[in-house]
Amino acid sequence: MSWLDRLFGNKPALSPQQARRLAAWQALPTPRQDVPLKTSRYVVVDVESSGLNISRDRLIAIGAVAVTNGQIQLHDSLEIVLQQARVSEKDNILIHGIGGTAQREGMPPAEALLAFLEYLGKDPLIAFHVAFDESMIKRAMKTHLGLNFRHAWADLAYVAPALYPQLARRYRKLDDWMGLFQISNYARHNALADALSTAELLLALSPNLEVRKAASLQGLKSLERKRRRQIQPV
User: Fold this and answer.
1) CA gap 161, 144 in Å, rounded
2) Owning domain of residue 76
3) Gap between the Cα atoms of 98 and 115, Å rounded
4) Which pLDDT tens digit goes with each residue over 33-86?
5) What is the DSSP pairing of strand 71-81 with strand 125-127?
């Protein structure tokens, strides 16, 4: 999308079939936020990008796995590489391992994002450090689908320390919490592998969530807000 498109709000040209798929997703009902984790479907997501600048860098891959009725569903997972017109830098490729050929031969962005929406439905999203994942996905949705992607998210980077405040100073990164709960990762910085580790963290936190009566999206968001207030500068 050019700067003129951004300035005047021109929407990307979708095919009639793509427009129907997008409209069908938009028409789906939004689930209630008080439904317990153990009786609903949540989608845990992670992304890989061409860098860490959320206003300039591009979304390269999405990895997602569903947690349904309190269990990770490996068969209900998704891994997509978005086709790139320009391959990311070599240092960036060394981090996520998605080479130039894989980037050039990825799924056309509009198709990839529609596939993600259809996989997701309107179920809540879970991530570790939501701000980056959400920003990258939202910008890609706007650029390639013309969609203002507003969705329910919960951030385990705030939920975990809210549940374990005595550990909050020492445990900040996903790797820290993975170590605490002995969660393995078959390919760190691979989007699907990191989504799976984040899903395992969600399940590791679940007993404490149950004790706190916070094992729902509503409960997760309440803990997240509490933690954010705690760390706000005075």
Assistant:
1) 36
2) 34-231
3) 19
4) 999 999 999 999 999 999 888 888 999 999 999 999 999 999 999 999 999 999
5) unpaired
